[in-house]
Amino acid sequence: MSKISLADMRKSYQSAELLEDSAQNHPMRQFEQWLHEAIQAEVPEPNAMTLATVGSDMRPSTRVVLIKGYDEHGVVWYTNYQSRKGHELAGNPYASLQFHWVELERVVRIEGRVSKVSAEESDAYFHSRPLDSRIGAWASPQSQVIASRTQLVTQAATFLAKFGTQPPRPPHWGGYRLVPDRWEFWQGGMARLHDRLVYRLADGQWDKKRLAP
Fold first, then answer.
1. Among 112, 178, 170, 177, which residue's Cα sits nearest to residue 142?
2. Domains of the chain
3. H or E, element range at 162
4. Is 192 labeled as catalytic in the residue annotation?
5. Cα separation of 12 and 10, whole Å?
6. For the chain, what is the mean pLDDT?
7. 172 with 187: CB under 8 angstroms?
8. Which pLDDT belongs to residue 10?
9. Average pLDDT of 72-92?
10. In sequence order, what DSSP letters do the residues of the chain get, joined into one string?
11. Could you tell me what percent of the chain has a pLDDT over 70?
12. What is the pLDDT of residues 14-52, one digit of tens each?
């Protein structure tokens, strides 16, 4: 097998540009525009985002989760509250999200404080999920060490037999909402002169500035 030179791997960015005058004044509207364009372009999993949290040991950790909603109040996803990310958010409620739409040469970064959504919101989303996903929320002790895959399959069968087709939402499972106070939009540019616009919340207003690439 021939050795691959990672240092020589390069990409020329030239699909679009992001200018202050054409960008939305509110970052949520800019995000909505880009998200819709990613969906329309049929990029793979346009709803996938990286979630970064920091534990009490000050070690950061990341994982990919799926956005399930957004509005003027923030960005929502659902997970197991007893997972590693759940424990880290309980100790440090600040987090960062990142979308990377490779085909469009775009990145969106979002920072802010995280809190749980209401029980009613979590219930509504949970009951909209496919049955196997609802059973999986009961069967998987997320982030814990388990003996084998067989254990998961056995637990799924056990909970299916217990609840049938109407499992309730587990008390350890639900939604989080990140309320942004900082957004960054990155558009790849020619000659590494990328476009970066940052929005910062100050006194209830969004301030938009350009950053050097």
1. 170
2. 13-127+171-211 (2.30.110.10), 130-168 (no CATH)
3. helix 149-163
4. yes
5. 7
6. 95
7. no
8. 76
9. 97
10. -PPP-GGG------S----TTTS-SSHHHHHHHHHHHHHHTT-S-TTEEEEEEE-TTS-EEEEEEE--EEETTEEEEEEETTSHHHHHHHH--EEEEEEEEGGGTEEEEEEEEEEEPPHHHHHHHHTTS-HHHHHHHHH--TTS--S-HHHHHHHHHHHHHHHTT-PPPPTTEEEEEEEEEEEEEEE--GGG--EEEEEEEETTEEEEEEE--
11. 100
12. 778 999 999 999 999 999 999 999 999 999 999 999 999
Q: Which of 169, 177, 192, 210 is catalytic?
A: 192
Q: What is the pLDDT of residues 151-202, one digit of tens each?
A: 999 999 999 999 999 999 999 999 999 999 999 999 999 888 999 999 999 9
